[in-house]
Design goal:
By secondary structure, the protein is of the alpha/beta class. It has 17 helices and 13 strands. The radius of gyration is 22 Å and the shape is globular.
Length: 416
């Protein structure tokens, strides 16, 4: 682990229960939860060494018995639970009780990305990100910054690539990255719990080790090392992560990830965790690949964050199949626009439960599990890669818990 580990880092990396709020039960002995649920009615059974009368007299238990169980409380012995949202979602009063009750962290979905913060050189725009952090603090939620460097050319402002009438040089590009990272991370020093420092730098099959981009072409691996060094210097207490996708599905991508993380550790770059984007499809969750990734992180002594979790029930894989031959058909495919059938919700619930059983098994590795969007109505999968009514999350459009929520609570409540 890098130098400069602070209370923020220690509270998280040394004990997920402390991070996720185990102080909910300051007066009780160790508790095992057993969770039973029915639609719109849930009961929490609490077993402890204290007698029933003594337990019932505690304000904490009384509150738990009068309301549905909290996701973050159920996960507290194992890892933190977060959600990626935009500022508008956080601002809506009807969403705030759900955020406060069930989550420890919120990830800035868009307002801290390159184009939002510095669309033109030196033109830093912090209105949205300032408001996001302020709202999070008002709601007592920890903030995940996303992201300082996105290693894709179409996600990097075009001005990074030019210097006057000429192409940018490696030295100038590195200086611009340093300025951006330092300016943003310093502004929120002490207020961001975790940063996605670099996002999506691994190459696809045709690209090899690193994604072909301005960053890799001019700087190779150096931009990765420097990005983490600059972020750590600007905010020594923040947990710093590398974030990417399909490293659980694709063994080649996982091998490239491991190569990258080994390189960063060999250079003493302060990388603390890997963010695994978990955008899965129903009946196609790669449990074996996820477990292989967890094992690899354990061997590297690097924590794993599930950074963007959902389970798509209107599967999108055919969109890219056969060179896009099915796209015209899929553009009008909207099978669950009038509601998701119970049998689909049941399968989704079972698969979410299996995921959380796996995360619980590797709780020494898993630092945080974050869903991508708050409820089904807010999900990006209603729009990507085509418009449809989707149901990928734990809460429905009325902000009510779905069978998947009950299944996750049940999985987390099993004693292991």
């Amino acid at each position: 682990m890098a130098d400069g580990r602070s209370c923020r880092k220690e509270s998280c990396l040394a004990g997920p229960a402390r991070l996720a709020g185990a102080d909910l039960f300051p007066t009780l002995p160790p508790i095992t939860y057993a969770y039973l649920s029915m639609k719109h009615a849930m009961n929490l059974l609490v077993c402890a060494t204290l007698g029933v009368a003594a337990l019932a007299s505690t304000p904490v238990l009384a509150e738990l018995l009068s309301t549905s169980v909290s996701l973050k409380a159920a996960a507290a012995p194992y890892f933190a639970v977060g959600v990626g949202v935009n500022q508008a979602v956080v601002r809506q009063p009807e969403n705030q009780p759900l955020l406060q009750k069930h989550f420890t962290h919120i990830t800035a979905e868009n307002c801290m990305k390159f184009n939002a913060v510095q669309p033109r050189q030196g033109d830093f725009r912090f209105e949205q990100s300032d408001a996001f952090v302020d709202l999070a603090e008002q709601l007592d939620l920890k903030v995940v910054g996303h992201c300082l460097v996105w290693a894709k050319d179409d996600r990097t402002p075009k001005w990074f690539a030019t210097d006057g009438e000429h192409d940018v040089t490696a030295d100038v590009l590195l200086h611009r990255m340093k300025t951006h990272v330092e300016t943003v991370a310093t502004r929120y020093r002490g207020r961001i719990d975790m940063w996605d420092v670099v996002n999506e730098a691994i190459g696809n099959d045709e690209e090899g080790y690193l994604r072909v981009s301005l960053w890799s072409r001019l700087l190779g691996e150096e931009f990765l090392v420097k990005a983490f060094e600059y972020a750590h210097a600007a905010d020594p207490d923040a947990i710093l992560m590398y974030n990417d996708y399909r490293c659980d599905v694709d063994a080649k991508r996982r091998a490239r990830l491991i190569r990258m993380l080994k390189m960063l550790k060999s250079r003493n770059a302060p990388v603390h965790a890997f963010g695994l984007q978990g955008h899965y499809e129903i009946d196609n969750v790669p449990y074996e690949g996820i477990e292989e990734t967890l094992k690899a992180m354990r061997q590297l002594d690097i924590k794993l964050v599930v950074s963007e979790l959902d389970i798509d029930v209107v599967k999108r894989g055919r969109w890219w199949a056969n060179g896009g031959a099915h796209r015209d058909e899929l553009k009008t495919y909207d099978p669950y626009k009038d509601g998701c059938p119970p049998e689909i919700l049941a399968r989704q619930a079972e698969q979410y439960a299996q995921l959380f059983e796996l995360f619980q098994e590797y709780h020494d590795v898993v630092l945080r599990v974050s869903f991508w969007n708050l409820h089904d109505g807010e999900s990006w999968l209603n729009h990507f890669p085509w418009e449809r009514v989707n149901h990928p999350l734990l809460f429905d459009r009325k902000l009510e818990p779905k069978p998947a929520f009950d299944a996750v609570i049940g999985a987390l409540s099993q004693k292991r």
